[in-house]
Amino acid sequence: MKVFVTGKLSDKAAQALSNFAQVDAYESDEPMERSQVEERLEGKDALVCILGDRVDAELFTKRPQLKLVANVAVGYDNINISDANDSGVLITNTPGVLDNATADLAFGLLLAAARRIVEADGFVRRGEWTGWKRELMLGAELNGKTLGIIGMGRIGKAVAKRARAFGLNIIYARKGNDKKTDDELKKTFQAERVELNELCRRADFISVNCPLRADTRHLINKNQFDIMQPHCVLINTSRGAVIDEQALVQAMEERKIASCGLDVFENEPQVPEGLLALDNVVLAPHIGSATRETRAAMDELAVKGLIEAFNGKLPTNAVNPDVWQKFSAKLKTTASP
Ligand code: DGY
Prior knowledge:
Layout: E1 2-5, H1 11-20, E2 22-25, H2 34-40, E3 46-49, H3 57-62, E4 68-71, H4 81-87, E5 90-92, H5 99-114, H6 117-125, E6 146-150, H7 154-165, E7 169-173, H8 179-189, E8 192-193, H9 196-202, E9 205-208, H10 222-227, E10 233-236, H11 245-253, E11 259-262, H12 273-276, E12 281-283, H13 292-310, H14 324-333
Parallel strand pairs: 1-2, 1-3, 3-4, 4-5, 6-7, 6-9, 7-8, 9-10, 10-11, 11-12
Helix pairs in contact: 1-13, 5-7
The structure holds (2R)-2,3-dihydroxypropanoic acid.
(2R)-2,3-dihydroxypropanoic acid is lined by residues 51, 73-75, 98, 288-289.
């Protein structure tokens, strides 16, 4: 079987994949053009890709031999799942292995924004520091404050765990109605479930940790910024489009909130000028999962799922398991020599 990888996998994953399949891998870490992906996918049974690679019906139609797409990310908003279902293409992602790395970054951004660390760094480097002053670079204390977590999945819980160690009280908003999960969250983190708008009204800090879906696109918009507290610090390590970026720029310019820490943007790698111009915004280039350990684990999980699927076992990291019968039938009829 033949696989195309849109980048270089970590050593262990690359070895496992090449023991199993004929691998063609893009030689660079630069993002690939869509036309290049289409070209290199010719005759391939599977694609291992990243969140910048768009996968949809057009691609499936052009490359009908494609049976599986392993997305090396937990978020899979770059893939049209309904198109994949129609084409019998199995999609996998990498859940569970990046929770700690992402939660660490969320906290890094929270501390940086609340304690003005990036601003302070620039101040020292520019030689503006003349001595200890009572009111120099005053920021917000975490201990005893309220953190609102939007999305209480695996990453939200990893953020909650860190929050407790910093003395934060936790409120959260999430989808789903099972009482058992809310009871567990109360027991483990003394966390209180609230509606989104109540969270926005009450939180001193907000961490966005929900996936991007049709129902979470622009979940945080002008309506929410209008009710946030002026000292609120907003952190986003999920997907840029969960927040209406224009509304965020306006809220920041009008000082509706105090500061923000952003690892993700609506049109990456573009960052709005309005955000670049502000001192009280901490920016990162989508590096939530960027630790050596986590990136290796993501690659390994992607390759493991791929091998399992082509060996006839539905991988646990399949995001559209209902397509399994179609995938299996396709495997029998269009296997590459
Ligand atoms: C993910 O896995 O979705 C992350 O955003 C990639 O780092």
